[in-house]
Design brief:
single chain; 7-stranded mixed sheet; 16 helices; binds uridine-5'-diphosphate
């Protein structure tokens, strides 16, 4: 396991954004955590929503006075292949969990536990399935009364039972389990301190800071986008659950009625995602020779500022997921006042109130219909912008998220 370094954040910068009630509660609970040590553990420091959140939450928590570290587990391809299958199958894909795969999964959890000396943390928050079995191997090295919390970020509403049952053996050992939504939890009975907390965005990160529209347009022009024509964008890893192929099919329907439209598919390639490259190539094949489709990744120079620019300057943001733990990209776009059309699944349903803060869709045809509606009706888009931003401010900011975590830790102490 390895400690992750993060860039410093200042709590005082957030005070202009949060309300006084949230501040008072944060101050109270952070104060109660004095002298307590907290570890966050996940599988990757880059790519995907969990890394995104921890890059903000850990330094913000530290600046508030929390003693908090962030660790990532290490693995090799065989481990990442198995955990990718875990991810897909816990989200519902069919398939058999072989004893070989179980062995590989446990081997790397055990190996990671051997890389640290005695662990002096009071609270250990494990994110997602990859490191979930650490509770088995690391617990003997931690304080006896350390509290273990498992935080699930994925959409486990219809899991493959073989995978769920295997994972359940470990998560039932935790002192608390956090899911995003009630519908994600199977067999609640033996899970202790079951808690529901939504993820969040950092309004002051480079990705979400307000960007001038002209500046945003200049940035996206560098990727070949014609800034004088309408643009639809999806920002996502290249993953079947994010349905980039469905996004291209949507665009093709829209294009017939609205020929000037362009599509950008912006995707980062995460280090623990071997399937990502295969799916990127499939996406490129579906895009074919249409030069109005831009497929860009972190390898073309897309980083946080560029994601911000795409979210700011697009006419519509899509998040056409088929399963979705939360979908930070939805809140990121809503926060910038850009209309969003999202798949009617998982955490997207929390963020988009259909017809008010955006549209929820079940099919490619419906998606195209809603995109056309937004493109043709700027007044409607403006109304949605305001409602969307308010929803994010109220529910999905990093400060509220951190508050919900410390409240839970405080409860576990009782
Ligand atoms: N992201 C990014 N660059 C990309 C694609 C995605 O920075 O090219 C970010 C995106 O802005 C969001 C996170 O990665 O903050 C993805 O989180 P989300 O919850 O949407 O999906 P996940 O990848 O966790 O399933």
């Amino acid at each position: 396991m390895e400690l992750v370094k993060t860039e410093a954040k200042k709590y005082e910068d957030y005070l202009a954004i949060i309300d006084t009630g949230t501040k008072a509660q944060l101050d109270y609970f952070v104060n109660k955590m004095q002298g307590k040590r907290i570890a966050m553990v996940n599988a990757t420091s880059y790519g995907g929503g969990v890394a995104e959140i921890l890059h903000s939450m850990v330094p913000l928590g530290k600046d508030m006075g929390l003693d908090m570290d962030w660790w990532v587990i290490k693995g090799a391809n065989e481990f990442y292949n198995v955990t990718k299958a875990f991810h897909n199958r816990l989200q519902g894909e069919e398939g058999h969990l072989s004893s070989e795969d179980k062995k590989i999964y446990l081997k790397y959890n055990e190996l990671n536990a051997t890389t640290v000396e005695a662990w002096d943390y009071d609270f250990i928050l494990i994110h997602d399935p990859q490191p979930a079995a650490l509770v088995e191997y690391l617990a003997p090295k931690t304080r006896q009364n350390a509290k273990w919390v498992w935080r699930c970020h994925i959409d486990t509403s219809t899991p493959n039972p073989e995978y769920w049952n295997f994972l359940y053996n470990y998560i039932k050992k935790y002192d608390a389990c956090i899911f995003t939504m009630e519908e994600f939890v199977q067999e609640k009975e033996k899970l202790r301190n079951l808690t529901f907390i939504t993820p969040s965005i950092d309004p002051l990160s480079t990705k979400n800071l307000e960007m001038d529209l002209d500046e945003a347009k200049q940035v996206i022009a560098r990727f070949g986008v014609d800034i004088h024509r309408p643009l639809i964008t999806q920002i996502s890893r290249f993953d079947p659950w994010k349905d980039p192929l469905g996004v291209i099919d949507t665009y093709k329907i829209v294009k017939k009625e609205y020929p000037s439209v362009q599509l950008a598919l912006v995707g980062s390639m995460a280090s623990d995602d071997p399937e990502g490259w295969d799916y990127l190539y499939r996406t490129l094949r579906r895009a074919g020779e249409d030069y109005d489709i831009k497929v860009v990744t972190n390898f073309n120079g897309v980083s946080n500022r560029e994601v911000n620019a795409f979210q700011t300057a697009s006419d519509v943001i899509l998040q056409k997921s088929l399963r979705e733990g939360f979908g930070l990209t939805v809140s990121e776009a809503l926060w910038k006042g850009t209309p969003v059309v999202g798949g009617n699944v998982g955490g997207i349903k929390y963020q988009i109130i259909d017809g008010v803060t955006g549209y929820l869709v079940d099919t490619v045809e419906e998606c195209a219909d809603k995109v056309l509606r937004i493109l043709r009706n700027p007044t409607l888009a403006r109304e949605m912008m305001e409602a969307g931003k308010e929803r994010v401010r109220e529910h999905f900011l990093i400060t509220t998220h951190l508050l919900n975590y410390v409240k839970l830790l405080d409860r576990l102490e009782e």
